Amino acid sequence: MNGAFLNKLAGILPADALLSAPEDCAPYASDWTRTEGVAEYVALPRNTAQVSAVLAACNEFGVGVVPSGGRTGLAGGAVVGKSQLALNLSRLNQLGDVSQLARTVRVGAGAITQAVHAHCENAGLTWPIDLASKGSCQIGGNLATNAGGLRVIRYGMARKWVTALEVVTSTGKVLELNADLEKNNTGYDLLQLVVGSEGTLAVITQATLKLVPLAPDLGKAVCLFALKDLGGLPYLFEASRKGPFEILAFEFFSQPCLEAVRTKLNRQSRLSKEGNYYVLLELAGDKPREGWFESVLAHPGLVDAFLAESSEDRRQVWGLREGITESVALTGRVRKHDLSVPVAKVADFLADAEAAALDFSAQMKLYYFGHFGDGSPHINLVAPVGVTAPEFDRACDRYEERLFPLLQKYRGSISSEHGVGLLKKKWLSYSRSPEELHVFRSIKTALDPKWILNPGKVFDR
Ligand code: MLT
Ligand code: ZN
What we know:
This protein is 32% helix and 21% strand. The chain has helices at residues 3-12, 22-25, 48-61, 113-121, 139-144, 152-155, 190-194, 232-241, 255-265, 290-297, 311-322, 324-331, 346-357, 389-409, 434-447, and strands at 18-19, 42-43, 65-68, 85-88, 95-99, 104-108, 125-126, 162-168, 174-177, 203-210, 212-213, 221-227, 246-254, 277-284, 302-308, 334-338, 365-371, 376-382. It is globular and about 70 Å long. The chain is α+β, with helices and mostly antiparallel strands. Bound molecules: D-malate and zinc ion.
C-alpha cells in the first residue's frame, strides 16, 4: 500500500485503531463463507469523524475500502482483496435511549443485533429482525445487506425497520438520511437506496431503528410437522394461513438437514415418525385451535406433529431449525444458495431442482431448508465423504448451469436475503436485466466516482 496513504491514515487514527500485524488482520479478511481474502491493514474507527477522514483519504489515493461488521455474511460481501483497506465498524457500537413515544432507538452501525434486542427488551420493545447469527452480526451489516431472517413472514425484511441513517459517502461527506421521519415525500429515497447496497454506495455509521412491542406470549406455540413429500408443504401453508392464529414463522427443512442436526449437534426432534420434509410453524393467538390441528393432521401427506407450548419445548424445536447452518457446514464442503421464487411455486421449483441434480448425485447432495412462507428456499450443495474438492466444485458448477436457468423460468431471484457480494456476482444477470445493470452502474458512479467502495462486489465496472 502507498506509503503516503499509510502516513495519512496514521495521522487520522490512533495507533490501536489501525492494525497491520498479519495475525491481527487475518480475522478481518473474510466472512462466514471462508472465501480467501487478504487484509493487510484494518481500520477500526471509533466515531463518524474518523470514518469520514478515512474515506476521504481512500478516495484521494484511490484505495479500495471494504466495510465490515460481524462478518457473518454468506455471499462474500466482506471479503477483502489485495491492496484494499478493511474498514471495520465494530467500535461504533453505541446504544442510544429507547423512545417509547416514537418506538425507536438510535444505535451505532457496530451494535450487535442481539445486544440491541436486549437493550430494547427492558422497555418492552424489540427490533423485529431475528437472525440465526444475531449473537455476532451487527446492525450496519443487517441494513447494508437488507437482512431477512426467521420472521420475515410476519415482519418483513430489515429495510422496513429503519427510519433514519447516518452514512458517509466515498468522499467522506456525512449525510443524515430521512431524519427519523415516518413520512417524507421529497424526492429520491436515499436511505432505501443505501439499504441492501452491500457497502457499495456509502458506509452506514448510525441508524434509527423502528421497534415493536415484544411479541405477546399469549397462545404462542411452535409446531413441528413431519411431511411425506414436498406436495405437503403448500397444503400445510395454505391451511395455516386459514388457521385461527397469526403465523410468526413458517420454516421448512428436509430429512438430511434433520439428520445433520441430530448427528453433528446431538439435537433430537421429539417426533415419533420420520418424514421426508419438516415444517416449523410458529403461531400466536388466543383462539382455540384444536379443531384446526385435527383437520390438518387428517391429510394423508402429514405423517406426524409435535406441539411445543412450554418455552423449553419451543426452544428445542427452534434449535433444530437454527442448528442447520452449523451442522451442514460440519457435514462437508458446502455451496450455499438462498433463492427466491413466488411462494405458490416453491414446492414445484424444488421438485424440478431435485430432478436436475440426479446426474450429480454421486458428487453432491442437496440439503433443502429455509423460509417456505417467504418463498425463500435455501439449497445447500454438500460434498459426500470421499468426494474431492475439485470433483465437488465441478459437479456444483455444472448443476448451477441447470439450476439458474430453471430459477429464471420460475421468475425467481438468485438471492432472497444473503445478497450478491462476491459469490453470486456471476449469476446476477439471471435476476437483473442489462438495462437494470446499466442503471446500477450509473448510480454507483454518481455516488462513488472512483468506485472505491467495496470494489468487485455485487457487479463489476
Ligand atoms: C438461515 O436461513 O438459516 C440463514 O439464511 C443461514 C443459511 O442459509 O445458512
Ligand atoms: Zn435464511
